[in-house]
Amino acid sequence: MRQTGIPSAEQTPEQIAAALECFLVEHAKAVVTEEGKVLFDMRAAKYSLTTEHGRCTLQLWSEERNVVRRVTAAVERGTLRDRMLRLSTQRFGQTRPGSLEILADKDRRTPSTREATRVRYLKALERVMLRGGGSGDAWGEWKAEGFRTAMDLEKSFGPAYARGSLVHGNQAWAVIAVNAEETQTTVDGILTLGVLWLAHCRETSGDRRPWRQYRGLRMIVPRGMATLTASRLAWMNRDAAQWELWEFDEKTEEMEQRDAADHGNLTTRLIHAPNEAAARERFAEAAARVMALVPELMRAAVEQRIQSGAEMAFRLHGLEFARVRMGYAGQSFNRVQEITFGAGANETPLTEENAGELRDLVARLFERREAGGDKRDALYRMQPERWLESELRRDVSLIDAHLDAAHVYTQVPAFAASDRGMLDVLSVGKDGRLAVIELKADEDLHLALQGLDYWVRVRWHHQQNPDAASGLGEFQKHGYFGGVRLAESDPRLYLVAPALRVHPATEVVLRYLSPRVEWVLVAIDERWRRQVKVVWRKRRGELKEPERYNHGSGNV
């Protein structure tokens, strides 16, 4: 058990606010709970902290609710994997004390509970396979072998996934499954882990059982949670393996096979590109007010980004510290501009009284968030993908000289309700071919398939409603790539990460992608904050292809 921080009786309002801000910076996906109920998911919520009149006041708000509490103490507890910040609070106008808990991970199941759920699921899975699975002869003639959930860190296999083989004579399937108690993110990761499991089965079978041939991969996911995986399956290499996706209802113990679709039903939206000139003119006065609080020597480093026709953001190395939004005044329909400041989810309306706080925030950011900063500092480490994006927005040709630096867009089209830890960038090559760019500053074994997700959606939008007369497609009709004749061909996919942060699983997964997806894996120097420099690039033809599976004969 971990407990850090100054004892509550000795905490000043400033120390409480600092502990709160530090925890939320470290845990961007934290959730705020009260009496066991989740009030806020900090990926979608905002907060404001004040330390006026000798007390620390916390305000949290989202589209669903607004909460204000006086915080009298903040104590961090838990282990590295199970961290939590407990806040002692008071509601205004009440004397009865209360508490809020900020959890680093919303999955609060104990290890023993998780283990019991996974063991129970594995037994149910084995029962279904023993009696012949779901339909036809797909399962009936096959024998389950070696199913387990044990962790294997060397191979990147975690205990959330049950895995084993189905065998019949000299033929076999690699099988991987996940139960309904796991998060949607864990369920969505099954194809990455499944590819690794298939590759592992083929490799070890060649050593121990050279007569056994693995047809391909069968994945089993909870009913109603297969949409993203189905979308991805359409773009796997069918010459290298057979791919099957099944939904399992744990209550009825019934299985049903899912068909893969080109893009599934995942929601994306393509909004019109904002009119930059008009927006900058609209926000000129507010922008001048913000920039006046930035020391003159620092102003050149501030990015003034137009987010939409109704919002402008101010960033330092990708980290947003202030923004201007159009809103409504009181109960009227009169539009007004509101300036707020704060890093990450922290937002405070700018007033004449607290202008000094914004000036202090800017000074702290410039002192701590610079290329040669302290890697242990939370503000230095915060939002590294945004920092990398800001470097590439200045010159995207740093990763490929054929990319057009004049056209770089972020998260277009946007994912609806996404739970992604990556940043999506869209550009175009000098040949007019769209370029989908996925950025990752830290190691992530899902890099390849998350990049594929974005590629699929860009491709889909690119194919919609082309104008035969003008040659304009959906992107240009929405104001993107002005003056560029976009090629009809599919986009290129660039996967960009620091060289030492490219997970070994990435190349394994890329080998199993369909040849229709043209990808480039780009490794950059670890010191990219100082200068983005490509260390190496790899393309499909440069990786060893998996052995081809002959669907007709049943042999590899």
Please outline what is shown here.
The protein has 556 residues and is of the alpha+beta class. The chain contains 13 helices and 27 strands.
Category from helices, strands and their pairing = alpha+beta
- Give the overall average pLDDT: 85
Number of helices: 13
Shape: globular
Structure summary, number of beta strands: 27
Describe the structure.
- The protein has 556 residues and is of the alpha+beta class.
- The protein folds into four domains: 3-103; 111-258, Trna Endonuclease, Chain: A, domain 1; 276-381, no CATH class; 384-542, no CATH class.
- 25% of the residues lie in helices and 29% in strands.
- It has 13 helices and 27 strands.
- It has helices spanning 13-26, 111-130, 184-188, 190-208, 227-233, 276-282, 284-291, 355-368, 378-381, 384-394, 447-463, 474-477, 505-511; strands at 3-4, 31-34, 37-41, 46-50, 56-61, 66-77, 84-90, 97-103, 143-148, 161-168, 171-178, 213-222, 242-249, 254-258, 268-269, 302-308, 311-316, 319-328, 335-341, 348-349, 409-410, 414-415, 423-428, 434-439, 492-498, 519-524, 534-539.
- Strands 1, 2, 3, 4, 5, 6, 7 and 8 form an eight-stranded antiparallel beta sheet that branches. A six-stranded mixed beta sheet has the order 9-10-11-12-13-14, with helices on both faces. It has a six-stranded mixed beta sheet with strand order 21-23-24-25-26-27.
- The protein is globular and about 80 Å long.
Defining key terms:
alpha+beta; Trna Endonuclease, Chain: A, domain 1; eight-stranded antiparallel β-sheet; six-stranded mixed β-sheet; 13 helices; 25% helix; 29% strand
